[in-house]
User: Fold this.
Amino acid sequence: MRKTAAEKKALTGEFDRFMRRYAPMVDARIENFYREKLASASMDFMREIYADLREYCLRDGKRIRPLILLASYLGFSPRGKKSLRGVIGVGAALELMHAFLLVQDDIIDKSDSRRGKDSLHVTCAKRYGKSSANPLIGTDVALVAGDVLFSNALEMISGADIGEKNIGPLMKYFGLTYERTAWGQIYDSLNSMPADIEASARAALDISILKTAHYTVHYPMVMGYVLTGGRDRKVLRAIRDAALPMGLAFQLRDDILGVFGDSVKTGKPADSDILEGKMTALVAHTILTANAKARDRFIRLFLKRKKTAADIGRVRELMRESGALDHVRAMIHENAQSAGKGLARLGIDDRSSAIFKGLIERIADVHMV
Assistant:
């Protein structure tokens, strides 16, 4: 049964209220952490980079991963045992790790902006470029500043009051999160501007699951459960079954925004995926279903190393004409439905269930472009 506009608004409102309440707590933890780092830094360049990292992490964003962790923790916690102080610290660490991955992503994609402002490597190039003959000084500094973010995330977890028995299991899944994501990024790179474009087209969904679904939804939900003391393998499998389609829908939505979105609203370019030859579900559908003439033209334009604005516009047109946009919208809807069915089997409390339903509804807003 289709939901009415009022029902959709009620669902998304649950998630939005949760976000307004808890996202500022995550931000406050990050702010306090970097205030202490700035105060203890022994050299000027350290203070400059700590300030950059603080600003970068606290740019406008929904804090999806910490919020999923928190909603999972609250949903699986026994009634009356819901202390959030330590869990907020872990959530803040996940946001630092998200920033770490974005720094890498912008360097790999050669993207100059992130969330409406300069990418970190651009910020570093502007500051240090005048004092260095190294044309890649911004990239060099930003890469290692990303390592600082990684170590800061570990430090933040070490200071979180989460119970000694939970540290080992948490770190197991923390490690798996970013190992899986790294493999996803490598697979993405190997399939960008590919020599065998049809083979790469068949890899598009695997890339999305490896690179995004696990670290955005699956493992934050798992870590929230583990922080309650949960270890049941059946529950872990149920989380996976609900979370992976939710995470895939999230990435498919991002794929649409990365080609057809409004860069002013999204805070990132709407042409970078095309410029870099990224293998997404939109590209895969166009290649595998367009007629021979349209397919050949699409591949020729898509694989051009230097694309003009006209090239980018024609790539978008060919995607639309092939039915790729409608197809990916339908995929988002199907995965959102699967996530909702999986959510119903998790056994979390009503409030957290409503929060996750709101997030699913927000992701499934497939007619945003």
Remarks:
- The mean pLDDT is 95.
